[in-house]
Amino acid sequence: MSHHGVLIRQIAEFGKIKTFADVTYTNIAEFDGFLRRTIQSQPVLYKRHNTFKSYIVDAINRGLCKSNPYIKFFFIYEQL
Question: Which site among 3, 23, 53, 56 is 20 to 30 Å from 72 CA-CA?
Fold first, then answer.
């Protein structure tokens, strides 16, 4: 549960994603940049994106979100 709490706090700190309407490819890419500045571990960074993606899929299934921007977004491993 703490992992989910950290993700929610990071989304709030990022500030550009407040509703599911704000979940766009551009905002996901910018959120990735925000996370890369604050997280030093590639596996943790991947897990944050994976958890966020699962929230979006659940929102789509519930009719709260129209599309999944993660379909076009690809996580890239980099040397930190």
Answer: 3
CB 32 within 8 A of CB 49: yes
CA pair distance 22, 72, nearest whole angstrom: 16
Exposure of 78 by Cβ count < 10 A (0-12 exposed, 13-18 middle, 19+ buried)?
A: exposed
56 closest CA partner among 3, 11, 1, 14: 11
Helices marked H in the chain — which ranges?
Answer: 2-14, 25-38, 42-61
**24-27 long-range contacts, CB within 8 A, separation 24+:** 24/69, 25/69, 25/72, 25/73, 27/69
Q: What is the pLDDT of residues 18-47, one digit of tens each?
A: 999 999 999 999 999 999 999 989 999 999
